[in-house]
Amino acid sequence: MTELSIRAVRRDELAAFAALHAASGSGMSPTMLEWEYFDRDLAREGILVGAFDGDTMIGTQGYIPYPGWWKDQAILTCKSESTLLLPAYRGRKLFDRMYALGFDLCRQAGIDCIWGFTSAEKPFAKLGFDVSGELFQEILSWSPFRLYRAIRHGVETTVSGTRVPPVATTALEALHQRRPGEFGVDRDARYLRHRYVNNPSRDIAAIDEAAGVLFSYGGRHPVLLRISEVVDRFGLRDALRRCRTRIGQDFWGVERFTNHPVLGWGTMPGSVFYRRRTAMRIVFKWLGPLEGQPIPSFDVEEGHTEGLR
Questions:
Q1: E runs forming strands in the chain
Q2: 48, 57 Cβ separation under 8 angstroms
Q3: Which residues on adjacent β-strands are paired with residue 185?
Q4: Which tens digit of pLDDT belongs to each residue from 246-274?
Q5: Fold classification of 4-132+279-299 (topology level)
Q6: β-pair partners for 217
Q7: Cβ(130)–Cβ(295) under 8 Å?
Q8: Dist CA 91 CA 8 (whole Å)
Q9: Residue ranges of domains in the chain
Q10: What's the pLDDT at 263?
Q11: What phi and psi, each to the nearest 5 degrees, are found at residue 141?
Q12: What angle do CA 35, 28, 154 make, to 5 degrees?
């Protein structure tokens, strides 16, 4: 039997990392990984950990660095992402060992907390993560029958929406606002460039500066826009109306992932509103000097769907 080992994944191993995920059914590529973990607009380079059987990669775990705040101080956070372990190797504590190394590397990099989204609650709870919160998927469609047929029967549909020209920094800055509360990810212009301008799988469809709402596309359903950032949830319905007037003829509705569902936003004439709880939960763990602090509350828009079509 070859030796099972855990170590940091090198940047020149991104092809093997992507191939492992692709073989497991996830649409991953070295280009996506390069953007996700090494984009120039990240707070720092990301951290990647792998499990190996000899020289063969059999598991992965990643940490994407985002600036944030806790109370009145700036902190560095990491989103837990790219968790994968081949089924044949489960039950050997490799998941725990990958995270143990990940925690050490994050502490060395000055990371103050790790957060993410998962449907696997027990493994994360065992590692000391707080598991809480519910995420909702909401869809508002002004072409509900066409959308139903497309989703139900897998109909490939091409929309004629025209991508907006390169987004001005001032438009991105209109979305930058520290939300009320003690904790958050700092969604400054650099963060938004990373998420939506540099992202090879996501584009900005529109920015509603009046309400501070960003609409993007590149989600699972090409006929739906994605509500990706919301500064003020109370302005969401007006932003939706303006979006529908501006580019609604090219799309069949909007989709949102959030832990703060908004009642009544589906009352637009001729629209159908759909909401469901997802299996995803929020996981959170303090590191370093902040260990032992109370777990903060989250304000989530989009969340676990980052970067994926």
A1: 4-8, 47-53, 56-70, 73-85, 113-118, 130-132, 136-141, 183-185, 203-208, 213-217, 224-230, 253-258, 272-277, 281-286
A2: no
A3: 68
A4: 888 788 889 998 888 876 666 677 788 88
A5: Aminopeptidase (3.40.630)
A6: 203
A7: yes
A8: 21
A9: 4-132+279-299, 136-277
A10: 65
A11: -125, 135
A12: 125
- Pairs from 154-163 (Cβ < 8 Å, separation ≥ 24): 157/222, 157/223, 158/222, 159/222, 159/223, 159/250, 159/251, 159/252, 160/250, 161/205, 161/217, 161/247, 161/250, 161/251, 162/250, 163/203, 163/204, 163/205
Say how many residues make up the chain.
309
What are the CA-CA distances from residue 40 to residues 83, 191, 255 (Å)? 23, 10, 29
Q: How far apart are the C-alpha atoms of 11 and 33, rounded to whole Å? A: 9
pLDDT digits (tens, 9 = 90+) for 172-214: 776 776 555 788 888 888 888 898 888 888 888 888 888 888 8
Using DSSP bridges, classify how beta strands 73-85 and 113-118 pair: parallel, antiparallel or unpaired: parallel
- Residue of 248, 225, 250 whose CA lies nearest to 158: 250
Q: Are 171 and 190 in contact (CB under 8 A)?
A: no
